[in-house]
Input
Amino acid sequence: VYHKIQEIIDTTENIIVTTPNLQEYNCIFEGSQGLALDEYSKYFPYVTRSRTGLTNVIDLCREHNITIDDVYYISRVYQSRHGEDKFFKESPTFGQFFEVEDLTNVNNDWQDSLKFAFLNIVEMEARIEKDFSLFVDLYPETKQHRVFTCVDQATHETFPLITEDGPNFFSADSLELSYDLAGIGTLFFSNKENNM
Output
């Protein structure tokens, strides 16, 4: 595809390709997929064929001589997996605590059905720490934050997360307090209409 696009650019006089000066803008960069799906993660071959997290952002920052003030790591309050993955362990009691209606990830011949598990906050934080450490070494003033979505899909006020002590129950307030005590800002989003 790239070669076809390049051929069109090379043979068309009216196309001008420019690189913006990112120092002139307030930039927002969006990562792809999840940190566990990075093509170099320990979960290979059950990954996406791209780099996730801050790797590409670091390259852009270096290329354009810019810094990033804040990094927001976004996760559902549970884990989901579409497709084969021998490392992903479904939670058999997931339906007792969450009611998920996902109209976009439907069962199909290639990826089977969507699978669900309780969010392992210890593993998530380990992946975030590894990812963020690459960035903070270069840009020590950058702050990190957590954003949790799908709180509205919990069927009770508290929901299970996997911690160092095993499954523990949290409310959005108690999870926020835990992160605040660690000096990490948090946001929560719930939106049943948009299926977040």
Observations:
- The mean pLDDT is 85.
- The chain is about 25% helix and 20% strand.
- Strands lie at 70-76, 78-82, 114-120, 143-149, 159-163, 166-170, 185-189.
- The longest strand covers residues 70-76.
